[in-house]
Every structure is written in C-alpha cells, then in structure tokens.
Amino acid sequence: MDSLTHIVLGACIGEVVAGKRLGKKAMFWGILTQSLPDIDFVASFWMNPANDLLAHRGFTHSFLFIALVAPLLALAADRWHRPHNYTWRKWTLFFALEMLVHVVLDACNAYGTGWFEPFSHYRVSFNLLFVADPLFSIWPFIAFMVLLFSRTNYAARRKWAIASFILSAAYIGISVINKTSVDRAVKAEAQHQGIAWKRYFSTPTPLNNMLWFVVLEDEKGFYTGHRSVWDKGPDTALLHYKQRHEDYLEPVKDVEDLHRLIRFSQGYYIIDKYDSTLVFNDLRFGQMLGWQDPEARFVFHYFLQKPDENSMVIQRGRFTNWNKEAVSLLFRRMRGLK
C-alpha cells in the first residue's frame, strides 16, 4: 500500500497495543515499525530497474525479516524506554505485529510480496486492493488525526483506532465479495464465448473495488477486459485478445533483465513494439484508462532495448492521461453496464 496508509495504520496500532503505557510515543514507534519493511527503497539507488523490481517487497517483506528484526528493535526500544516498564517481550510482539500487518496488507495488491524469502521466491498477491485506495485508508487517517490532536487521557482514543480497524477490515471484506462476484461472472462469460483458458486473475482498477481488470490466459496470449460488480449482462467484460508475441524476444533472449521481468510478472506478460522498440508489458497492473479504451497501453511497460528509460516503471503509467473526463468515465463504468 501507499506510505501514508502504512503511517496512519501504524500509529493506530501503536495506540491500541501500547498507548496506555507509552502515550503518544507508541504512535511514533508504530509509524517507524510499520514503515520499516519499505526500507528496501534504498536499493533503487544502486540497482537497475529490473533488479529493483525484485528487491522491492522481497526479503524485507518476509517472515524471516520480521523474526530477525523485531527482537533486535525491541532490545533498543527496551533500553530507551525502561522507565515505562514495558518488557522486551511486549516490545517484540508489538513490533512483529506492526511489520506483519504491513506485509499482509501489501499482499492485498497486485505487486507480489516475498513472504517466504530467501527460501522461496514465490510472491503472494491476493489482488484485493489498488495500491492507493482512499475508501480503505480514510478510516485510519481520521483516527490518526484524532489521536494526534487529542490528549493522552482522552478516554475514547483506543475506540477511535479500533473503529478504524473494523471499517477498513470491512472494506477488505467487501472487496472479497466483489472480487468473487466478478470472477464468477467473467468465467461464465468465457464459457459462454467458448474461451478455453488455463489461468485467470482479476485486480481492482484505481481507487475503488467495484470495477475490476480481468485477464484470462490461453496457450498463445491473453483475453483482457473490465467488469463492474454492477454489470447486468452476461457478456459485459468485453474481452479482447492480445497475443503474447514470444517470437519478438529472439533479439533479446539473452538479456538478463528479460528473465528477471518474466519472473517478476509471474508469467502474465505480452511483448509489444513501440516505434520498433521492444516493450515488455506486465498485465497485472492493468491498462492506462483501459475502461474507456480496450486497446490502451499497459501501465507497466518496460523498454527492453532502452534500459535507461525505465525509471519509475511502476508509477509512470498509473495515472497517465488522467483528467476530468477520464475520472467521469471511470465512475460511469463503475456504475455498470445494463
């Protein structure tokens, strides 16, 4: 998730777990520890983009990292705050909980999270939330503001934080329901159209959990489309076929970046040519305004023959060409097709 969400959520967890003993210092420690797994961003300063993609949400988002770091950080905190009579064991559990919530929440996005590094490179992705979803984050943000500006003896502090957890968890629950509904409808649509697919995934479009980007893989490519939970007809995802174009990779088959990208994409990729330049598209991140143009370019596009032009490869396509009309079309499509 975005950094702001981790900050406010970390502060709220800190208040609930340790606020009575530590006061507002618990919020500080919560923010610090909740944000700690994202320390892997420093890798971008010396790694090329392809390597950085695998480094991010890798070892620092693993269970082993939590098991190693939580006790060490607890040792430092215990020495710093000994007058508070908060034991090393409690510090360890507090910090482990913060980091565990971070890595579980990140697994709700499409990126993939390395829970089992370094023993397994498998990335966990539940595809339940867009990386920044205001309807998920607003509740801990409101609670954070209350905690920040209220006195430590304000009786309802913990209630505000707990209420924010309940509302955000409920939103994830709604996402599960919506995803299940969309998946069922799209698979029925594929059967109705006679599409033989072997793998499938769906992921929410930006800033909501009602309109979903869907992908079905067959032997040579992918069917992609968008489906709203409010769509009424059986064939409203409007699936469009895109070939994988493996043959395009012959000139770059020995490029190390290519193999890293294939691993990162979990096999959900197609190869295109932009002005004779080979482009690796990771389908998991959706299309740029794909709900209004099914032939739109993909958010994640990596220039295989121009490696120096791939900075911010994840972020650069997320909100490209967004304007008032694009937002209006998004909300219109969210409301469903009849």
Automatic annotation (TrEMBL):
The entry lists its GO molecular-function terms as: hydrolase activity
The yes or no answer to whether the keyword Transmembrane is present is yes
Q: Which UniProt keywords apply?
A: Hydrolase, Membrane, Transmembrane, Transmembrane helix
Give TM regions. Answer: 59-80, 92-112, 124-148, 160-177
- A Pfam family: YdjM
Q: What is this protein called?
A: Metal-dependent hydrolase
Which species?
Paraflavitalea soli
